[in-house]
Amino acid sequence: MRFDNATLDGIIAGLITFTFRAWDRPRVLVGTQLRTRRGVVEVTSVDKVGRVSRADALAAGFASLTDLKEFLAKKGGDTYRIGLVFAGEDHRIALRESTDVGGLDEALSHKPWAMDILYAIDAQPAVLSTIIADQFGWERAPFKRRVRQLKELGLTESLEVGYRISPRGKAYLASKA
After folding, report:
1. Measured between alpha carbons, how far is residue 132 from residues 28, 83, 84 in Å?
2. CA angle 146, 88, 36 (to 5 degrees)
3. Is 156:169 a contact under the CB 8 Å cutoff?
4. Edge-first strand listing for the sheet containing 78-88
5. Which InterPro entries does the UniProt record give (predicted)?
6. For the chain, which residues make up each domain, given as ranges?
7. Is CATH 2.30.130 correct for 5-89?
8. N or C: which end of the chain has fewer CB within 10 A?
């Protein structure tokens, strides 16, 4: 699930405690933690609903009931009300700011592609993922999955477009020079 900045601000402040989605079946479970660009949002409930009111739309951060209905109509399916709470900062933020590279050799030992991706991103920050994936002869989706694995280790950061190497990633690359 993606959230715009205004919705994230509302969730973090505790002003928005639910949202709506149109799905053929629930796409999240209670307890799911969603990483966002502002921190972690936890799903507290998932309920199929028949109707939504203007008050529901406004409380979920939509400008109007019409805006919510248009948003739901784009996807089609049943309407679900998803309870949300801000669960805190994303641990990867502190990890990527660290320059401690201990344990990374072992963590990357089963990822023979890791160094190639790190070097490619370091040489081409903020480049579309499809462009870098093409350089490896990969489809975009498998490339992005691999970058997410590096992100879990605090080595990369997502940008509006593309990626960059984090301070931890830079320290790791320097340790291999």
Report:
1. 30, 37, 35
2. 40
3. yes
4. 18-23, 78-88, 39-49, 33-36
5. WH-like_DNA-bd_sf
6. 5-89, 92-176
7. yes
8. C
Amino acid at 106: E
Token code pair at residue 112: 């023979």
Tell me if 170 sits within 8 A of 157, measured CB to CB: no
pLDDT along the chain (177 residues), means of 10: 93 97 97 92 97 96 96 94 96 91 96 97 97 97 96 93 97 96
CATH number of 92-176: 1.10.10.10
162 neighbors 126 (Cβ within 8 angstroms): yes
Query: Can you state the percent helix, strand and coil of the chain, rounding each to 5?
Result: 45, 20, 35
**Spatial separation of the C-alpha atoms in residues 142 and 42, rounded to whole Å:** 26
User: Given this model, what pLDDT does residue 138 score?
Assistant: 97
| Whole-angstrom distance, CA of residue 171 vs CA of residue 99 | 6
pLDDT digits (tens, 9 = 90+) for 96-137: 999 999 999 999 999 999 999 999 999 999 999 999 999 999
Residue type at 140?
R
Q: Tell me which amino acid residue 144 is.
A: K
Environment class of 136 (CB within 10 Å of its CB; exposed 0-12, middle 13-18, buried 19+): middle
Token duo for residue 89: 């900062």
Residue 158 backbone zone (phi > 0: left; psi -120 to 50: alpha; other: beta): beta
| Token pair belonging to 27 | 């796409």
